[in-house]
Known about the structure:
Largest sheet: 7 strands, mixed
Shape: globular
Structural class: alpha+beta
Distance between the termini: 29 Å
Radius of gyration: 15 Å
Amino acid sequence: MIEIRLFEARDAEQIAQLFHETVRKVNVRDYSSNQVRAWAPDDIHFRDWVEVCSNRFTYVADDEGVIAGFGELEPNGHIDCFYCHKTYQRCGVGRQIYRAIEAKAVELSVSRLFIESSITAKPFFQRMGFSVVKEQKVIRRGATFINYAMEKLL
């Protein structure tokens, strides 16, 4: 049974690995191998994730000790990272994480959620009620990516 809970420092290594593997194995459907290597380089450091995840409302989907996915909400309504492990895609895990994020946003009296969504995640966020504001090109570690500024009014 999957439990949605707030991030704990002990989750950082699994979250870093989940991020890396998801980008490399799932997002590669929509982005080139050069792009995914720039997005998720080989030299990720899980200690960096402790600081980032601790400074946001980071919700994890915990399947009896295995992190199935995670999503981060900033107090201004920005959803930063949102990833589901490749073996938990299309199983409702993302929806459960998203519901926790939206409930927290409502609790914080946030009136608008917004995200920069990958091509891969865009259909998911559309199903959650987000609209595309604009397509944009971003550069990360020398690689140019298409992503989508999306928002949802609460």
